[in-house]
Amino acid sequence: MMYQEERLLKILDYINEHHAMSVMDICSLLEVSRDTARRDIVKLVQEGVVVRTHGGVALPQLKKEIASYQERLIDETDSKSKIGKIAAKLVQDRETVILDVSTTVQSVAEQISAKNITAITHSIDIVGILSGREDLQVYVLGGYLHTKNRLLYGPSVIDKLRELRADKAFIGATSIQTDGLYFPYEDDVSVKKEMARRSDQVIVVADFTKFTSKSVYRLDFDFVDILITDQEVPNEIREVLHNKNITIIQCEEEDKYEEDNKDES
What we know:
Domain HTH deoR-type: 4-59
Keywords: DNA-binding, Transcription, Transcription regulation
InterPro entries: Carb_Metab_HTH_regulators, DeoR-like_C, DeoR_HTH, NagB/RpiA_transferase-like, Tscrpt_reg_HTH_DeoR_CS, WH-like_DNA-bd_sf, WH_DNA-bd_sf
Radius of gyration: 20 Å
Shape: globular
Structural class: alpha/beta
Protein name: DeoR family transcriptional regulator
Distance between the termini: 61 Å
Number of strands: 15
Organism: Paenibacillus anseongense
Order of helices and strands: HEHHEEHHEHEHEEEHEEEHEEEHEH
């Protein structure tokens, strides 16, 4: 069985090479029904990476691809580092933390100084970052390897999460709107929901670009306790977060607080 995320990547690879793809091409290449092929087309059109044509899809005039994990890692590097530094301070010695697959969460993992923690993740890169530390344990949520997005995926990831309990979960987001967090794949939301259910506190780490980004599948704010970001949160979103008792930590405000304390001392 091939998951939608894997199918979409195969379709994109084909379109990047051939510039267009018909419904029948999708059915033949992926061995799926016409209904499944049409659902995949709708998803790619919603993402804005393809345009509909008569009988299939094609690249838009201005080519736009779903960015790979490595490409996203380069974007807003300084912002991610600042967010990661503040988030990492929330981890206490001997805690169990869940670390989502996200370039910003990866920055959290890089800057954790707490000792004797247990880290749970399905991110290949976070496993690599933490594997060199002898003062903590890493529990890997096993599944199928997604090489482009550097993660393990599949039903076994959620099955394993259901057996665990954590003090904190750090998750990323593709988009943040007034009604919740958004992600490009339905499976993403299922994994995030289970991470939230299995954790006492859920911390979202996201840079300012996520407030103007768009995506498809929603995770309700009811799952979130803290949002850490690098710039001012738009007023309409800030109001919603305030009403839901979600704490907002802004990097610039945190930096100012630390500078004031230095001056006083």
